[in-house]
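Running this now, will post back.
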Amino acid sequence: MKRKVIVVGAGAAGLLASGYLAKDGLDVVLAERNDRPGRKLMITGKGRCNVTNNCTMINELVESVPTNGRFLHSAFSSFMPYDTVDFFESRGVELKIERGERVFPASDKAVDIVDALTSFSKESGAKLIKARVTELLLENGEVKGVKTEDGEEIPADAVLVTTGGVSYPLTGSTGDGYMLAKQAGHTVVDPKPSLVPLVCHEGFCSDLQGLSLRNVSISVVDSDSYKEVYRDFGEMLFTHFGVSGPMILSASAHLKDMKERKYEIHIDLKPALSYEQLDARVQRDFLENSNRNFINALDKLLPKKIVPVVVKLCGVKPSYKVNQVTREMRAKLVNVLKDIKLTVLGFRPIEEAIVTSGGVNVKEINPKTMESKLTKGLYFAGEVIDVDAYTGGFNLQTAFSTGYLAAKSIKESLQ
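Update: finished.
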């Protein structure tokens, strides 16, 4: 008689794990509360699905997980980014590498990733059922199965919880896994938003809504100690409430003990140029535009939308002729171009976070197997665990690696 495993949650970790478990001859039930699997995967990477990061070193992966990265060493060792690439390419999904070693489907369609994972799970023999698991069946420190919202009891030899966190609740990430973990005696680190847009004080953010800045750099400073907590180069986006985009989302993972005005963001619009080089560039532009109004002389230097904001910040009258601009005025302009300050008021709501920081305490999970240290036969994988990574494909790689390691460990324990 086949040994039975229940996987709770058909996201990245659950789909991959259920497929490997079924492929190895186990009787696998994949319970998903949504009508369709992979709901959250469908919206990752703005619908393009940044499936992994093409880095080859384990220490690089570990360093890309600011919360409990070392806990994932064994998981990453068991299933690396190149394994993720092989998995999808062997299933007919062509991949491509973009800036920052981000790996995407060549089609730019997340549905190709979801379809590949779903077909792998089904073709391997896992049975996908629509059910919300609300309770673990426990007996003498062991898991014996699960109970669904409808009252049905499903017996099992092992249970793998892969329900995600609490970000994007419309996709089914509503914290069910935390409830199951607590029932088994686990501590759950309070969920907080990570990889989340930031609300800023400055009103000009809303004026710049929709403006994407590329090849700029940011420095995030703790305004209490004035120590730099994060620095990055790349892309950011202005919104009606503040800022978002890849650099800002990554920065948010470093903003601990968030409170109003605790952090400042300093934007360098021209990081490739030193102060002196930028001043020389401005002087050249001014020579070409000496009879134009100041506000009309910056279009070669900046995106049109940000020009009025920069002019206002440097305090030079927009109607001044360029040949009236003094050295002091030019110095103020260069200072603004090298340092636009934003005051952070807080995170956007956790529902808007790409991932959740917090979850099942890693001290209560065996990092070599993903099995609970408190309840035999109970395993965890993916975002339900208290690990969260930067943007760039690292969070999905974490889901795949922990899902694979949990499946491998379950198979070995039931043989």
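Confidence is low (pLDDT under 50) at residues 167-173. More later if anyone needs it.
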